[in-house]
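Students often ask what a holo structure prediction actually looks like on paper. The answer is less mysterious than it sounds. You provide the chain, you provide the ligand, and the output is a string of discrete structure tokens encoding the 3D arrangement of the protein together with alpha-D-galactopyranose.
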Amino acid sequence: MNTVEKVEAKFRELFNESPLLFRSPGRVNLIGEHTDYNMGFVLPAAIDKAIYFAITPRSDDICNLHSIDFNESNQHPVAKIQHQEKHWANYLLGVVDQIQKLGYTIKGFNCVFGGDIPIGAGLSSSAAIEAGLAFALNHIFNLGIAKLEIVKLAQRAENEFVGVKCGIMDQYVNIFGSEKKVLRIDCRSLDYEYHPFEREDLRIVLCNTMVSHSLASSEYNARRAQCEEGVKILQQYYPHVNSLRDVEWDIIKLHELEFPPKVWNRCKYVIEENERLLKACEDLDRNDFVSFGYRMYQSHEGLRDLYEVSCKELDFLVDLASKQKGVLGSRMMGGGFGGCTINIIEHNKVNEFISEVSGKYQMEFDKKPDTYICTIENGTGLLH
Ligand code: GLA
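The corresponding structure tokens follow.
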């Protein structure tokens, strides 16, 4: 049985009825890291790894949740949603909470979910749960919530209910992702455009450091605070500046000496990364993956040296990748301090790459990195 069949079978076993099935993908981000909460640009894509939901509405007030991966059930009255300390159900309950906060009335529902997005690898399994459930509830209760509102409510569920201050990228690409395209999101205007990412001869390969990003949330919030500190310094002179997106390089340079050195580095990285991303989109439009790959390496250097969110395992993998045949670009992906690197590789060099990198990584760190070859797929949708 594949994952979706397992989810459906469990649902029938528990509730003895036929469900609607939804697929909600994980994501990669090609370039543009730590730019979303600075109102900049990001360039993610939805992938073939996903969470699947089997779901039906109920006529009473009970939401019945079952996680295949935890092999655990959980029951709640919709009208009395309560946060549970460190519990998987929070990712779903936060969504039910936010939908009601928007003024929609929903009844209870039965829901079984599970998937093949590796947890803790930085592929946004949590956003897939939140945005996927919001999409499914919108569908089964016919709420008429627009796609962008689904994105925002799913992000608020993570920010307010789960308690992680993430940006909007993961939930956005989960809903708006499209097969064979990357999504350039402008996190200030919340507009998007697609750029082609279709080359039969290239593959996206992820290498998982297997380092769980335990530092990630405290350091993530610290980076956010440092960027805000930079904005405050600039606001004294330029009141219109609300985020690092509103600052030109020529202007910020005039004030370098007023910045604490670390704050300066963080801001410099963010401004450079936004510029890099815009050029990277031009590369894609010209089908120039050599130049695109070069910018990925530059992005990694910025994340390592200026933003300081990499770690020795990620640096090792990127350095190793840069020496392999057929690798066009490589960098750490996501929040940092662990998780995966993303690599663009010629398809006929992929096997060699995986065996070289796995062997050398294992020798250095005494653990085997998982590797995933990803394809770019559509965002969340109903399965027929
Ligand atoms: C995490 C967050 C995103 C984004 C990235 C860094 O994945 O959930 O919103 O900030 O880190 O680019």
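The radius of gyration is 21 Å.
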